Amino acid sequence: MHILLFAATVFGLALLATAAASGDDRDAAEGHFDDTAFVEKDVEYANPDDQHLKLDIASPDEGSGPFPAILCIHGGGWQGGDRHGYDDLILALARQGYAAATIEYRLAPDYPFPAAIHDVKAAVRWLKANAAKYRIDPERLGAMGHSAGGHLALFLGVTGDVREVEGDVGVPGPSSRVNCVVSMAGPSDFTRGYGLKAEAVEAAALFLGGDVSEARASYFLASPLCWVTPRATPTLCIHGTEDELVAYEQAVWFVDRMLQSGVEAELLTLPGGKHGWDGEDAGRADRALIAFMDRHLKPSH
Question: Strand runs (DSSP E) across 74-177, as ranges?
């Protein structure tokens, strides 16, 4: 498997292993029960350029909510990957008391920056606009992602109120601002030290419309680090020190900039960790994500 198309980390499997397996498999009007979660698949959230962008959403099958929600954004070098890589994760999150959605977005090179940005912002607005239907609390919404998905999650966290990058995709009206972000191995600055391998540099060029000499403005505009202000949202970065694609320093720089701006930010360092994780590294990431989301989305937790 081409490493840049890595979309489904083992993240979430530890949660699944410890989750309760009770429940029923009854079909429902617009979704179905899967163990202890209610799932609805193939829901269209936007249709830019006749692309029919879809999401899958899972929520607790008990309780009336409203539940805190997490938007899960897959990786794949902005040119591959699939929302179904997070199917297990949204189930795991539902069993932890969240409504969780895994989304697709338009991919490069057919749709370069800022198409993916506009799509993930549209997904946030859609979740807020449909909050009542899916028992979501629109004031408690987080975003997470790995690799390219981590980059898109970071971008959401620093541009919630920036109209210039909002786009006109999908449902208008609600804010695309999220309450917290977890980025796993996501790049924050394309202008320096991003690509550790030629394939990573090539992926960025396809996403940004050329190399840095050809598309310098896009390299700055697409870098979450360049958008950090005191209005950015609390963020946890998880990154391996031996990441072979996205330099570990990308997370260090971002967290430092956030702290300098007076915004809560944390870095979970995985010593020796690569771009994808398993074993204890995956377990640490699991626990850190849940603890961070609980702290910011479950005030009474």
Answer: 99-103, 136-146
Tell me the Ramachandran region of residue 42: left when phi exceeds 0, alpha when psi lies from -120 to 50, beta otherwise: left
CATH superfamily for 10-297 is Alpha/Beta hydrolase fold, catalytic domain (3.40.50.1820)
Residue 259: count other Cβ atoms within 10 Å of its Cβ: 14
Angle, CA 139 vertex, CA 75 and CA 180 arms, to 5°: 40
At 34, is the pLDDT very low, low, confident or very high (cuts 50, 70, 90)? low
For residues 148-167, b (16+ Cβ closer than 10 Å) or e, as one string? bbbbbbbbbbbbbeeeebbb
pLDDT in tens, 41-77: 999 999 999 999 999 999 998 888 999 999 999 999 9
Q: Which residue has the tokens 């320093």?
A: 249
**Is 273 within 8 Å of 288 (Cβ atoms)?**
no
Phi, psi of 53 (to 5 degrees): -70, 135
Contacts of 19 (CB under 8 A, 6+ apart): 35, 36, 91, 92, 95, 96
Question: Residue 9: its pLDDT value, please?
Answer: 41
